[in-house]
Amino acid sequence: MLLPVPFAWIKKILSILKSNLSPNQIAFAFTLGIFAGLPPMGLHVLIPATLALLFRCSFRAFLISLGLFKLVSLALAPASYAIGKWLLDTQRGADAFWRWLFHLPVVAPMGYSRYLLLGSLVVALVLAIPILLLIRWLVRRYRASFATRVSSWRVSRWLKGRKGTGLAQRVLAGGTTKYESAPPPRGIFRVIRREMLIGLPILYAVAYLVAAIVIPFFAGTAATSTVSWVVGTDVAVSDSSFNLLTGGLTLSDFTIQDPDAPDENLIAVPELKVDVGLMPLVADRLVLNSVVIADAELHVKREADGTLNLDNPSSGWNAKGYLEWAAQYAGSVDWLGLLRHLVDYLGQWEPLAPREDPYAAYGGGRTFPDYRPPFSIERLEIGRILVTLDDETASNTDGPLPPMTMLEVEISHWAFPAALRTEPIQLSLRGQWGDDPDSGFRLSATFAPSERGVVTQVEFALRRIDLPRLARVYATTLPVRIESGWASVSGFLRFDGESAEGETSFLLEDLELQASSDQALFGLPYETSEHVVEGINRYAADVPIVFGALIGGTSDAPELQWEAPLLQIAREGLMMAGRRELDRVIEELGGRVDRLGGIGGIPLDPSFEQIQQQTEAAAREVIEDAAGRLFQDFPLVQDLTGSPDVGDTEGSDEAGLSDLLPDLLENLLNPSSGDDNPDASASD
Questions:
Q1: Using CA atoms in the order 590, 592, 596, 602, what is the torsion angle rounded to 10 degrees?
Q2: With contact defined as beta carbons under 8 Å apart, do 430 and 408 qualify?
Q3: SS3 breakdown of the chain: % helix, strand, coil, rounded to 5?
Q4: 458 Cβ partners below 8 Å, 6+ apart?
Q5: Pairing of strands 261-277, 248-258
Q6: Mean of pLDDT values over 102-127
Q7: pLDDT for residue 112
Q8: Residues pairing with 441 in the sheet
Q9: Do residues 482 and 471 touch, judged by C-beta distance below 8 A?
Q10: Can the peptide bond before residue 417 be classed as cis, meaning omega within 30 degrees of 0?
Q11: How many C-beta atoms surround the C-beta of residue 473 within 10 A?
Q12: What are phi and psi of 394, to 5 degrees?
């Protein structure tokens, strides 16, 4: 039988009042409805709803209260928002507690507005006790006075006990007074519903199974839609599968497109496997226990205006500031300068605007100030990444850049915000440049939180990098042009707060430099800079260049302190060239003296002989002293190449340069191999 809405509500209220529940139980259910009705809708509603089902209270009273206070919340929303904003002011210290609380599983709602939600909960707490006492008093008054008065009416006495009047009593008066005829159960089941101890787990299990069947049909679409919203460009997959029981998500042919060139892909992954943590999803967090990518391709292109295609997705970072800088300077810097500025602007995080916000009218937003998505990757494994580099600028006349292949990539404990990280982030990768198997690189980094921020420690190594092929990468960074040469580098770098420190070792083979016509080395006069380049070239023409350099400065702009080592190498190169020139002239003069018959047969007055001996001895001392100062601690070319000197013994066991170089290059990208060979480490 359908009744008009007011009569239906009156009937339900009368049924609650006449039930065998105590006034405390009815008031408790009504109070739970306040916590479900006043705050904005979200998963947090499950908490009071579960309590209303589990405890022996009136679930009808809970639903009536929920609907009533949902209407009241519209009127109280501005006040709730103002209270929440006042409480979360950074000066009152509640913001940190709020962040911690709503990153906990089960407690956290999904899609919350922090000001409105906190303010609504505070209002609900303020109203809860007065309303609980009021509802309990009203129930008692009804049962003590009104129900007794109604039962004394003549029509009530006439209807009582007659057959066929049960329907009329239920329709008009909410049924019989069960609190008089049906005593409540005893023991713990007076408070808890016995059937709900089994019913609630079954209910949630059925809901979970239904979700496990339904969600896989749109899991791939939801994942690509979310990634597309985050990166600001189209993301596509050809096929997807998701297992809600295990949290395994597999995406086939995962691609991220270039928004300015839809037919080109920025990233292409044939198969992406993700192990999703399901419980953290309830806390509005995305925790990926593991992400496995067997193979991937990354296409990096420098466009005609000098910018990179990687900066086309413009969501979540300071793209506007970067584009303003790029419009002026992108065409005049090399790849290193461009990437350095791109990383700087990428670090300037801008929260994503929500796609739908029903509470936008109350100001603020759905996210924390300077908020980053609560996102965490416990382990990221990539088997192989092929990075292709294209240059479409007008100055590109040297052909394509060599591709970079990352053979092994692994990232552990990656999480945003940093408070969610349980352990320091660890990154390790290994790969090679171009198609040369001898040209490779290795990098391992650790990012650990500290009181001054994040402490970053990086160890790196490069082996036999063809410098001229990468000239466009550093063209405007270095004040010289590299005509030929191979570079092998190893070192470490540490960023702690605002300071940077580290050490680097260089091995440069077959190096030949050309001085720049508009830039001088290290701020030297242009003529001196040319001599420095000449000295380095003369040194490198005979032996490989090996030197070490310190790294200092700030974390934003670390400085490689290699001026002194390079100037010393240039000085030694010029001395080597000068010594050869002097040796040539001395030998030429000696030959001419010999052709003239020498000076042994020329007579000399005996009175001059003693003076001659003294002057020759003094001249010999001057020559030896000058040569000693000039070439002090300066190794001969023969010594560096491992060739024996005149005084060397035939049985010398000293390892020469020709023996040391292969061992160094072999162990450069595999430092642990030296530990297994004590002889090799001793020779190093």
A1: -30
A2: yes
A3: 50, 25, 30
A4: 443, 444, 445, 492, 493, 494, 502
A5: antiparallel
A6: 66
A7: 46
A8: 431, 462
A9: yes
A10: yes
A11: 17
A12: -65, -25
Query: What token pair was written down for 588?
Result: 């030429």
The one-letter amino acid code at 440 reads G
Closest CA to 233 of 209, 212, 262: 262
Strands 286-293 and 248-258: unpaired
- 406 contacts 296 by C-beta, under 8 angstroms: no
- The pLDDT value recorded for residue 665 is 66
- The pLDDT value recorded for residue 680 is 40
- Percent of the chain at pLDDT above 90? 3
As a whole number of angstroms, the distance between CA 189 and CA 150 comes to: 32
Between 601 and 30, residue with greater pLDDT: 30
CA 429 to chain CA centroid, nearest Å: 15
Between residues 408 and 102, which one has the greater pLDDT? Answer: 408
CA distance 35 to 70: 10
Residue with tokens 């720049």: 516
Predicted local distance difference test score (pLDDT) of residue 109: 42
Tell me the two tokens of residue 638.
Answer: 């023969």
pLDDT for 395 equals: 58
DSSP letter at 554 equals: B
Label residue 646 by pLDDT band (50, 70, 90). Answer: very low
Average pLDDT value for the chain? 70
- Could you tell me how many residues make up the chain? 684
Residue type (1 letter), 81:
Y
State which H helix or E strand residue 223 sits in: helix 219-231
